[in-house]
Design a protein that fits this description.
The protein is about 0% helix and about 45% strand. The strands form 9 sheets. Strands 1, 2, 7, 8, 9, 10, 11 and 14 form an 8-stranded antiparallel β-sheet that branches. A 6-stranded antiparallel β-sheet has the order 3-4-5-6-12-13, with no helix packed on it. The chain has 4 domains: about 200 residues, no CATH class; about 110 residues, Immunoglobulin-like; about 140 residues, Jelly Rolls (Sandwich), CATH 2.60.120; about 80 residues, Immunoglobulin-like, CATH 2.60.40. It is mainly beta and about 600 residues long. Strand 8 and strand 9 form a beta hairpin. The protein starts with about 30 loop residues before the first strand and ends with a strand. The structure holds calcium ion (CA) (4 copies). One calcium ion (CA) binds next to strand 7. The site of one calcium ion has 8 residues, from strand 15.
């Protein structure tokens, strides 16, 4: 839960919506889905018939107030709109989704909505709370044609009452059925509170779907005990959807990247044909602008991502070598002429060109203040431009109505799903008037040698601490929130937190962060099958490379006497490693530098 307090100094949030047809309830959507419920006598209407999988299915662990777990396997492929799905994520707020684990939390979107997440199937998408009472969530499959997810005895946040409901996938008729064994209590603020609940389905783009209930309306469709709702799939042979989208750019989060001046950056993006039409080739455009919008880079490639459902990575031929520190924005764009949903055509990535002794920041001063109406907090994730990286303190923009002590924590990224894990160090500060507060960590020796780190602040008193946020793009997509567990924030697509990592000026020499003498060139990067790692070795000496994963484990060792090494993306046991970021490390290199390499198949 949340609410915003404080003064909006400047709000420039804008939303782009696709051309969306929202159907009247009970009408079929433009694809051909319609619903019937057990309160009607229409032929084909479902009868309530609870299929308990409590203690029979597999329990989903780790669900909390506002988070997402999974994906869990269906055990078969199931037709949903024009795609086949074979796994789903489980949102603790009463929904499941396919292919998109972005958190859905208050305020809850309408169905359909192009807002992420997409592909939502929502029996009761509302502020439910798995941290209260003794709720559980289960899934079960016969590995043939039936799959069930059951939410059992879940409370609404800050409310009494227990809710037990389930989603049933039946491949025999491609129908999805919601069933409600028990509905009690109410969303925070009541069933009619704005954006407090959504029941329905939407497709992979979020531009087609059906709402059964939104904010408790219509009253005639109020959820009640022993209700069943069936979403029935009809297929029209004339239905056409042309859509290409940018899935992500530079990394899976399209997260902000810090880079040193003079570094060669490979620009890449992943594209998917999300429509149902075999397309002709189309172009992908990449452009980088500086902080005042002047273009500093542009490149274009043709792509052959033509088959519906196909995804492809594109590395642009032209690299970018930034020369001047500052904020930049990389935008990648698909240019499919027939595209029917422009909202997913572009992706922006925040680039920050910094020297090695600089602050790491995603904001340009706050223009909005935000506080949680429960003990909760925020963190920023940082991937430094070089290793080792020294963290000496943090700066945070905050305020409090009366002097309030806060604890700022520096976390390793070794928690579940690479969330904030071990606390590396922490320090306290007293917050009063709206201002920047500098907090120096008492342990001066914190060194980040690989991967990422988090700096987080949580408030133990509801409504007490106000955080400064920046709502002017580009956004880092590196914002996390704490609501009992750490999760990528619901706001990460539209806000940046005014919380910066500080490395003191003047200790550059002792850090040994001079550029390496044998800066390798890795081509292609990201790579699919083989990466060729070029480096200088004129005397043909024995060189040993270690490949690390992001948790700091050596996954591959390569020895060579040449000026190159070839890595096939496999570990020392010959097994293919998963997609993601790895680091090349030359053990014979006196400056001991790590170099990023990405597997993107
Ligand atoms: Ca959506
Ligand atoms: Ca919740
Ligand atoms: Ca599109
Ligand atoms: Ca930003």
């Amino acid at each position: 839960m949340l609410k915003i307090i404080g003064v909006f100094l400047l709000v420039t949030i804008s939303f782009l919506y696709c051309q969306t047809k929202i159907n009247n309830i009970n009408d079929a959507d433009t694809f051909g889905y319609f619903f019937l419920d057990s309160d009607t006598n229409v032929v084909g209407a479902p009868a309530f018939h609870w299929v308990s999988i409590y203690n029979r299915g597999t329990r989903i662990s780790g669900l909390a107030d506002d988070n997402v777990k999974g994906p869990v396997p269906l055990g078969f492929s199931f037709p949903y709109y024009w795609e086949n799905i074979n796994n789903v994520y489980i949102g603790s707020n009463g929904y499941i989704s396919y292919g998109d684990n972005f958190l859905s939390a208050f305020p809850f979107q309408s169905l359909p909505s192009v807002s992420r997440p997409n592909n939502i199937i929502a029996p009761l998408m509302s502020d439910l709370d798995f941290s209260a009472g003794t709720p559980s969530c289960w899934y079960w499959t016969n590995a043939l044609d039936s799959f069930i997810v059951e939410f059992d005895s879940v409370q609404f946040w800050s409310s009494v009452g227990l809710n037990s409901f389930q989603v049933i996938f039946s491949k025999r008729d491609s129908a999805i059925t919601f069933q409600y064994l028990k509905v009690s209590g109410a969303p925070y603020g009541g069933w009619n509170a704005l954006n407090s609940n959504s029941v329905g389905i939407e497709n992979n783009i979020g531009n087609i779907g059906l709402a059964y209930l939104k904010d408790g309306l219509p009253v005639s469709q109020t959820l009640h005990d022993s209700l069943a709702i069936r979403f029935i799939r009809t297929v029209s042979s004339s239905f056409e959807m042309h859509d290409a989208k940018i899935m992500y750019t530079l990394n899976k989060q399209s997260g902000a990247v810090f880079v040193n001046p003079g570094t060669t950056m490979n620009i890449w993006t992943k594209v998917r044909n999300t429509g149902n039409i075999y397309e002709d080739w189309y172009s992908i455009i990449a452009s980088i602008t500086d902080s005042v919008g002047n273009p500093v880079y542009s490149s274009m490639e043709d792509i052959f991502c033509r088959v519906p459902g196909m995804a492809d990575s594109i590395v642009f031929d032209t690299t970018w070598i930034p020369s001047t520190t500052g904020q930049y924005c990389l935008e990648t764009q698909v240019a499919l002429t027939s595209d029917m949903c422009r909202c997913n055509d572009t992706m922006q990535v925040e680039l920050r060109v910094v020297n090695n002794n600089s602050e790491l920041a995603y904001d340009n001063e706050p223009n909005v203040f935000f506080s949680w109406n429960r003990p909760a907090g925020f963190a920023n994730q940082f991937v430094p431009p070089q290793y080792p990286w020294y963290v000496r303190g943090a700066r945070v923009y905050a305020s409090a109505p009366s002097p309030t002590d806060i604890t700022i924590k520096l976390f390793d990224d070794n928690g579940p799903d690479n969330s904030p894990g071990d606390i590396l160090t922490q320090a306290t500060a007293t917050i009063t008037n709206p201002n920047w507060y500098f907090i120096q960590f008492s342990d001066p020796g914190i060194t980040i040698s690989d991967g990422s780190f988090f700096i987080g602040v949580t408030s133990t008193i509801a409504n007490q601490l106000s955080f400064g946020l920046d709502t002017i793009p580009p956004f880092s997509h590196r914002l996390w929130e704490y609501t009992g567990t750490w999760n990528p924030s619901r706001y990460s697509l539209s806000r940046d937190l005014c919380l910066r990592s500080v490395t003191f000026v003047g200790i550059q020499e002792q850090m040994g962060m001079n550029p390496v003498s044998t800066q390798p060139i890795i081509i292609p990067n990201p790579f699919n099958k083989n990466a060729v790692i070029h480096f200088t070795n004129p005397l043909r000496q024995n060189k040993t490379l270690h490949i690390y994963n992001t948790t700091g484990t050596i996954v591959r060792t390569i020895a060579t006497k040449e000026e190159f090494a070839i890595w096939d993306g496999r570990n020392d046991a010959g097994l293919r490693l998963s997609n993601g970021c790895y680091f090349v490390y030359f053990i014979d290199e006196p400056t001991k530098s790590l170099h990023k390499v990405i597997i993107a198949r």
